[in-house]
Hints:
Number of strands of chain A: 11
Radius of gyration of chain B: 13 Å
Low-confidence stretches of chain A: none
Number of strands of chain B: 11
Low-confidence stretches of chain B: none
Mean pLDDT of chain B: 92
Strand content of chain A: over 45%
Order of helices and strands of chain B: EEEEEEEEEEE
Oligomer: heterodimer
Amino acid sequence: ILNVEQSPQSLHVQEGDSTNFTCSFPSSNFYALHWYRWETAKSPEALFVMTLNGDEKKKGRISATLNTKEGYSYLYIKGSQPEDSATYLCAFSDGANNLFFGTGTRLTVIP
Amino acid sequence: ETGVTQSPTHLIKTRGQQVTLRCSSQSGHNTVSWYQQALGQGPQFIFQYYREEENGRGNFPPRFSGLQFPNYSSELNVNALELDDSALYLCASSPVTRTINTGELFFGEGSRLTVL
Protein backbone atom coordinates (compact mmCIF):
# COMPACT_ATOMS: atom_id res chain seq x y z
CA ILE A 1 0.00 0.00 0.00
CA LEU A 2 1.45 3.35 -1.07
CA ASN A 3 1.63 6.09 1.54
CA VAL A 4 0.16 9.45 0.53
CA GLU A 5 0.21 12.04 3.29
CA GLN A 6 -1.50 15.38 3.46
CA SER A 7 -0.88 18.21 5.89
CA PRO A 8 -2.29 19.87 7.76
CA GLN A 9 -5.25 17.63 8.57
CA SER A 10 -7.44 20.71 9.01
CA LEU A 11 -7.14 24.45 9.15
CA HIS A 12 -9.25 27.53 9.68
CA VAL A 13 -8.47 30.78 7.88
CA GLN A 14 -10.12 34.17 7.74
CA GLU A 15 -11.84 35.29 4.56
CA GLY A 16 -9.30 37.02 2.34
CA ASP A 17 -6.30 35.11 3.71
CA SER A 18 -4.16 33.04 1.39
CA THR A 19 -3.32 29.50 2.38
CA ASN A 20 -1.52 26.42 1.19
CA PHE A 21 -1.29 22.75 2.02
CA THR A 22 0.92 19.83 1.15
CA CYS A 23 0.64 16.39 -0.40
CA SER A 24 3.57 13.98 -0.02
CA PHE A 25 3.82 10.84 -2.13
CA PRO A 26 6.40 8.22 -3.16
CA SER A 27 9.00 9.66 -5.53
CA SER A 28 9.37 6.33 -7.36
CA ASN A 29 7.00 4.96 -10.00
CA PHE A 30 5.29 8.32 -10.39
CA TYR A 31 2.64 8.54 -13.10
CA ALA A 32 0.23 11.32 -12.12
CA LEU A 33 -0.94 13.39 -9.16
CA HIS A 34 -4.58 14.43 -8.80
CA TRP A 35 -6.17 17.12 -6.62
CA TYR A 36 -9.89 16.97 -5.78
CA ARG A 37 -12.15 19.35 -3.88
CA TRP A 38 -14.90 17.72 -1.81
CA GLU A 39 -17.63 19.90 -0.38
CA THR A 40 -19.85 18.48 2.33
CA ALA A 41 -22.79 16.42 0.99
CA LYS A 42 -21.49 16.68 -2.56
CA SER A 43 -19.21 14.58 -4.75
CA PRO A 44 -15.44 15.07 -5.05
CA GLU A 45 -14.60 17.24 -8.06
CA ALA A 46 -11.30 17.28 -9.87
CA LEU A 47 -9.20 20.42 -9.63
CA PHE A 48 -5.99 19.34 -11.33
CA VAL A 49 -4.28 16.31 -12.82
CA MET A 50 -0.51 16.82 -12.98
CA THR A 51 2.01 14.58 -14.69
CA LEU A 52 5.25 16.52 -15.27
CA ASN A 53 7.90 17.45 -12.72
CA GLY A 54 7.86 21.20 -12.19
CA ASP A 55 4.32 21.47 -13.53
CA GLU A 56 2.25 24.34 -12.24
CA LYS A 57 -1.49 24.59 -12.83
CA LYS A 58 -3.98 27.31 -12.03
CA LYS A 59 -7.75 27.57 -11.88
CA GLY A 60 -8.99 30.95 -10.74
CA ARG A 61 -7.60 31.63 -7.26
CA ILE A 62 -6.36 28.06 -6.83
CA SER A 63 -3.02 26.82 -8.08
CA ALA A 64 -0.84 23.75 -7.60
CA THR A 65 2.79 22.84 -8.06
CA LEU A 66 4.43 19.45 -8.48
CA ASN A 67 7.87 18.09 -7.55
CA THR A 68 8.09 14.44 -8.55
CA LYS A 69 11.78 14.07 -7.67
CA GLU A 70 11.20 14.82 -3.99
CA GLY A 71 7.61 13.60 -3.93
CA TYR A 72 5.45 16.56 -3.00
CA SER A 73 2.78 18.86 -4.36
CA TYR A 74 1.48 22.12 -2.95
CA LEU A 75 -2.01 23.51 -3.35
CA TYR A 76 -2.41 27.27 -2.94
CA ILE A 77 -5.58 29.27 -2.46
CA LYS A 78 -5.26 33.03 -2.85
CA GLY A 79 -7.74 35.29 -1.05
CA SER A 80 -9.81 32.49 0.50
CA GLN A 81 -13.59 32.79 0.30
CA PRO A 82 -16.23 30.97 2.36
CA GLU A 83 -17.16 28.92 -0.71
CA ASP A 84 -13.62 27.48 -0.68
CA SER A 85 -14.52 25.61 2.51
CA ALA A 86 -14.15 21.94 1.63
CA THR A 87 -11.90 18.93 2.03
CA TYR A 88 -9.04 18.90 -0.46
CA LEU A 89 -7.85 15.43 -1.45
CA CYS A 90 -4.73 14.51 -3.35
CA ALA A 91 -4.28 11.16 -5.08
CA PHE A 92 -1.16 9.48 -6.46
CA SER A 93 -1.04 7.20 -9.48
CA ASP A 94 1.76 4.73 -10.23
CA GLY A 95 0.30 3.80 -13.61
CA ALA A 96 -2.02 1.01 -12.49
CA ASN A 97 -5.76 1.40 -12.70
CA ASN A 98 -6.22 2.91 -9.27
CA LEU A 99 -5.50 6.06 -7.32
CA PHE A 100 -3.98 6.18 -3.85
CA PHE A 101 -5.66 8.95 -1.88
CA GLY A 102 -4.46 10.91 1.12
CA THR A 103 -6.79 11.55 4.03
CA GLY A 104 -7.38 15.12 2.94
CA THR A 105 -7.03 18.63 4.33
CA ARG A 106 -10.26 20.11 5.67
CA LEU A 107 -10.34 23.86 5.05
CA THR A 108 -12.79 26.18 6.81
CA VAL A 109 -12.90 29.81 5.69
CA ILE A 110 -14.38 32.07 8.34
CA PRO A 111 -16.37 35.05 6.99
CA GLU B 1 -22.62 18.10 -10.86
CA THR B 2 -20.76 15.23 -12.45
CA GLY B 3 -23.69 13.24 -13.83
CA VAL B 4 -22.72 10.16 -11.83
CA THR B 5 -25.59 8.94 -9.67
CA GLN B 6 -25.49 6.40 -6.88
CA SER B 7 -28.21 4.57 -4.98
CA PRO B 8 -29.17 4.18 -2.28
CA THR B 9 -27.72 7.22 -0.53
CA HIS B 10 -27.94 5.63 2.91
CA LEU B 11 -28.64 2.15 4.16
CA ILE B 12 -28.35 0.10 7.31
CA LYS B 13 -27.60 -3.61 7.36
CA THR B 14 -26.71 -6.16 9.99
CA ARG B 15 -23.66 -8.39 10.15
CA GLY B 16 -23.80 -11.34 7.78
CA GLN B 17 -26.24 -9.71 5.38
CA GLN B 18 -25.55 -8.89 1.76
CA VAL B 19 -25.78 -5.48 0.08
CA THR B 20 -25.91 -4.20 -3.49
CA LEU B 21 -24.96 -0.63 -4.34
CA ARG B 22 -25.67 0.87 -7.74
CA CYS B 23 -23.98 3.46 -9.91
CA SER B 24 -24.96 5.13 -13.17
CA SER B 25 -21.93 6.53 -14.93
CA GLN B 26 -21.75 9.83 -16.74
CA SER B 27 -22.93 9.69 -20.34
CA GLY B 28 -20.11 8.59 -22.63
CA HIS B 29 -17.99 7.10 -19.86
CA ASN B 30 -17.12 3.42 -20.28
CA THR B 31 -15.04 2.88 -17.14
CA VAL B 32 -16.29 2.71 -13.56
CA SER B 33 -14.21 2.51 -10.38
CA TRP B 34 -15.40 1.88 -6.84
CA TYR B 35 -13.76 3.29 -3.72
CA GLN B 36 -14.39 2.76 -0.01
CA GLN B 37 -13.92 5.61 2.41
CA ALA B 38 -13.89 4.53 6.04
CA LEU B 39 -14.13 7.12 8.80
CA GLY B 40 -10.98 9.20 9.04
CA GLN B 41 -9.42 7.61 5.96
CA GLY B 42 -8.95 8.58 2.36
CA PRO B 43 -10.86 6.70 -0.34
CA GLN B 44 -9.41 3.24 -1.02
CA PHE B 45 -9.63 1.55 -4.40
CA ILE B 46 -11.85 -1.55 -4.51
CA PHE B 47 -11.94 -2.35 -8.24
CA GLN B 48 -12.47 -0.95 -11.70
CA TYR B 49 -14.67 -2.17 -14.56
CA TYR B 50 -14.10 -1.52 -18.24
CA ARG B 51 -16.47 -2.84 -20.88
CA GLU B 52 -18.15 -5.20 -18.42
CA GLU B 53 -14.91 -6.81 -17.21
CA GLU B 54 -12.89 -6.26 -14.04
CA ASN B 55 -9.85 -4.21 -14.96
CA GLY B 56 -7.91 -3.94 -11.72
CA ARG B 57 -8.58 -4.72 -8.07
CA GLY B 58 -7.39 -3.32 -4.77
CA ASN B 59 -6.70 -5.14 -1.52
CA PHE B 60 -10.28 -6.25 -0.81
CA PRO B 61 -11.51 -9.82 -0.16
CA PRO B 62 -13.54 -11.79 -2.72
CA ARG B 63 -16.78 -11.07 -0.86
CA PHE B 64 -16.54 -7.67 -2.56
CA SER B 65 -17.68 -8.24 -6.13
CA GLY B 66 -19.01 -6.16 -8.94
CA LEU B 67 -20.72 -6.01 -12.28
CA GLN B 68 -20.80 -3.62 -15.18
CA PHE B 69 -23.72 -3.64 -17.60
CA PRO B 70 -23.81 -2.91 -21.35
CA ASN B 71 -24.97 0.65 -20.61
CA TYR B 72 -21.83 1.02 -18.41
CA SER B 73 -23.76 1.29 -15.16
CA SER B 74 -22.31 -0.78 -12.36
CA GLU B 75 -23.09 -2.61 -9.14
CA LEU B 76 -20.98 -3.27 -6.08
CA ASN B 77 -22.00 -6.34 -4.07
CA VAL B 78 -20.72 -7.12 -0.61
CA ASN B 79 -21.52 -10.50 0.97
CA ALA B 80 -21.28 -11.56 4.60
CA LEU B 81 -21.14 -7.98 5.86
CA GLU B 82 -18.79 -7.17 8.71
CA LEU B 83 -18.84 -4.20 11.07
CA ASP B 84 -15.70 -2.81 9.39
CA ASP B 85 -17.57 -2.59 6.08
CA SER B 86 -19.36 0.49 7.47
CA ALA B 87 -18.15 3.26 5.18
CA LEU B 88 -18.99 5.64 2.36
CA TYR B 89 -18.79 3.86 -1.00
CA LEU B 90 -17.91 6.10 -3.91
CA CYS B 91 -18.35 5.33 -7.57
CA ALA B 92 -16.34 7.19 -10.20
CA SER B 93 -16.58 7.07 -13.96
CA SER B 94 -14.20 8.16 -16.68
CA PRO B 95 -14.19 8.13 -20.46
CA VAL B 96 -10.81 6.49 -20.99
CA THR B 97 -9.24 3.17 -20.31
CA ARG B 98 -5.49 2.52 -20.29
CA THR B 99 -4.70 6.18 -19.75
CA ILE B 100 -7.26 6.56 -16.97
CA ASN B 101 -4.67 7.66 -14.47
CA THR B 102 -3.79 10.83 -16.35
CA GLY B 103 -7.44 11.78 -16.58
CA GLU B 104 -9.77 13.01 -13.92
CA LEU B 105 -12.38 10.82 -12.28
CA PHE B 106 -16.01 11.92 -12.05
CA PHE B 107 -17.44 10.89 -8.71
CA GLY B 108 -20.95 10.31 -7.43
CA GLU B 109 -22.03 11.51 -4.00
CA GLY B 110 -21.63 8.07 -2.48
CA SER B 111 -23.67 5.47 -0.65
CA ARG B 112 -23.24 5.44 3.10
CA LEU B 113 -23.45 1.93 4.52
CA THR B 114 -23.83 1.26 8.22
CA VAL B 115 -23.40 -2.31 9.44
CA LEU B 116 -24.80 -3.07 12.89
